[in-house]
Design a protein that fits this description.
Blueprint (H helix, E strand, L loop, with lengths): L4 H21 L7 H23 L4 E4 L2 E3 L8 E9 L1 H4 L8 E8 L2 E9 L4 E4 L15 E5 L7 H8 L2 E5 L2 H9 L5 E4 L5 H13 L3 E3 L18 E4 L4 H9 L12
Parallel strand pairs: 1-3, 7-8, 7-9
Antiparallel strand pairs: 1-2, 3-4, 4-5, 5-6, 9-11, 10-11
Bound molecules: adenosine-3'-5'-diphosphate.
C-alpha cells in the first residue's frame, strides 16, 4: 500500500524543510535577507506542488504562493500549504522559529497534516502526534507574534497572571504549545488559512484546544482564505482564556485591516 495522507504530509514537510536548510548552508553573509526569503518561499512551494501533483493528482492545492490542481470548488480534497511560515525568522541567522506546513482539508476540516521545524530537526504530524507533557508549575506562558503582538494580549496575560513569549511563525508557536514549551498561542489582527491549517490539525490530534477567539470553530477551504484570529492552548486553560479574551477592552479583531 502507498503512503497514507498523514505519512505524505510528514514526508513533504520534511523534504521541503531539508531544501530550506540547504539554502541556509549555501548562504553567505552578503545575501540580502529578502532574496533569501524569496528563494526559500519559491523552492519550498515548487517542491510541494510538484510532489502533490505527482502523488495526489486529483486533489486541489491552496498554497500561500498560488493554487494548483482542479478548482477547489469542485474538489472534495484540498491541500492547504505554507511553504515557509516565518519567512523573516528564516532569514535571521541562528533562529529556529520557522516552519513548513502541509495540511489536507476535507469538508472544511483538517484531516491530516504535518509541521516541519527544520532548524530543530523535528516534524510533528497527525499520524503520530506527540503526547502532551504535563504542565510545569509556575505562571502560564502565552506565545505571541514577535513582530505584530496583538495589543489585547497584555490584558489577557494580566487576567491570568501569565507571561508572554514573543516568537516568530504561527507553526512554531503552535508547535511550542504541542511540545509543552508554552501553554497557549493567541493571535488577532490578520492571518490566512495556510498560516494555521497544518499546525491546528497537529494540535487537535495532540488533544489541544483550537478555536477562533470567540470560541467558534476554525474552518478551512472557504472561498476567502482570510482567517484573522485564533487561540490554541492546553485544554484546561481554554475556558479561562476565552473568558479573558471576551472581557478585553482593547480591540481583538481587525478583519478590515488586510
Ligand atoms: N496582521 C497580519 N496580516 C496578515 N498575515 C499575518 C498578520 N500577522 C501575522 N501574519 C502571518 O502569520 C504568520 C506568522 O506571523 P508571526 O510570526 O507574526 O506570528 C506569518 O506568515 P509568513 O511568515 O508565512 O508570511 C505572517 O505573515
Amino acid at each position: 500500500m502507498g503512503e497514507d495522507d498523514h505519512e505524505l504530509a510528514a514526508r513533504l514537510a520534511r523534504q521541503a524543510g531539508d531544501r530550506l536548510l540547504g539554502l541556509h548552508s549555501g548562504r553567505t553573509s552578503e545575501v540580502d535577507p529578502r532574496v533569501l526569503g524569496d528563494a526559500g518561499d519559491n523552492a519550498s512551494h515548487e517542491l510541494l506542488l510538484a510532489e502533490l501533483a505527482r502523488t495526489r493528482p486529483r486533489d486541489s492545492v491552496l498554497s500561500e504562493h498560488g493554487v494548483a490542481g482542479p478548482p477547489r470548488e469542485s474538489c472534495p480534497r484540498v491541500w492547504v500549504v505554507d511553504p515557509l511560515d516565518g519567512t523573516r525568522e528564516f532569514t535571521e541567522p541562528g533562529r529556529t522559529d520557522w516552519a513548513v506546513h502541509v495540511a489536507l482539508v476535507e469538508d472544511h476540516a483538517v484531516t491530516a497534516s504535518a509541521v516541519a521545524l527544520p532548524a530543530r530537526a523535528a516534524v510533528l504530524d497527525t499520524g503520530a502526534p506527540p503526547r502532551l507533557p504535563s504542565r510545569p508549575a509556575g505562571r502560564p506562558r502565552i506565545a505571541v507574534s514577535r513582530s505584530r503582538p496583538p495589543a489585547f494580549v497584555d490584558e489577557v496575560a494580566g487576567a491570568l497572571d501569565a507571561e508572554t513569549v514573543p516568537m516568530g511563525s504561527a507553526g512554531a508557536k503552535i508547535a511550542a504549545v504541542v511540545l509543552g514549551e508554552v501553554d497557549a498561542y493567541l493571535h488577532a489582527g490578520g492571518q490566512y488559512e495556510w498560516d494555521s491549517a497544518a499546525p491546528v490539525g497537529v494540535a487537535r490530534a495532540a488533544g489541544l484546544h483550537a478555536s477562533r477567539l470567540d470560541g467558534s470553530e476554525l474552518t478551512y477551504d472557504r472561498a476567502d482564505p482570510w482567517l484573522p484570529d485564533l487561540l490554541v492552548c492546553r485544554p484546561e486553560l481554554a475556558d479561562a482564556l476565552l473568558t479573558a479574551v471576551s472581557r478585553t477592552t482593547v480591540e481583538t479583531r481587525s478583519e478590515v485591516s488586510r
